[in-house]
# Entry
Amino acid sequence: MRKETLKNRKIRVAEIVSRLKLEYPNSKCSLNYKTPFQLLVATILSAQCTDERVNKVTSVLFSKYPDPKSFSKLSAKQIGKLIYSTGFYNNKAKNIKSMSDIVDNKYKGQIPNDINLLVSFPGVGRKTANVVLGNVFDIPALVVDTHVTRITNLLKFVNTKNAVTIEKIMCKIVEPKDWSIFAHLLIDHGRKTCVANKPKCLDCTLNNLCPSTLADF
# Structure
């Protein structure tokens, strides 16, 4: 198979984004939040947990503890009990407690809009930082989660599972204005059509743009 040029990859990914926008016109972050801090906490909780479960937990959690100051008054053990059902609660609680203390004391309760500062927080990697930057600060940020990893590999834009490498590669071919929506579109597509192990290629709006399609033409 002839190697696809950078120009052609940009053309193909632009058409993919265009089609997915038509397919999922309401695509957006599925985590519920009111502030940058709440989205940061929710995203930390979403690791190895469904967004639906996280939203159930945070609906109660944020009604009682809406900001860094209220969280910093809790112990990690207390936070752990509140987030138990999201899984890996000990590590998540420890990170949320430390992060809340830092934000409350060092940043006066405000979440910085700088990726280098965000990833310095306990429990915050590039994925989590990019979620916050793209969704609450409107800073172009391309999130790489399991859906993005799987589908970009199927589309043959990448051949790796390394999230940082995928982010760098996709940022070179996806228009910056679409960086933030890109992950939401692939997440929606991964949930509805390009389902892991059971892809619905015949029903896929991308089947003639996907080298991995199982559809017969």
Notes: The domain at 6-28+144-209 is CATH 1.10.1670.10 (Endonuclease Iii, domain 2). The longest helix spans residues 6-23. The chain has a mean pLDDT of 96. The chain has two domains: 6-28+144-209, 36-110.
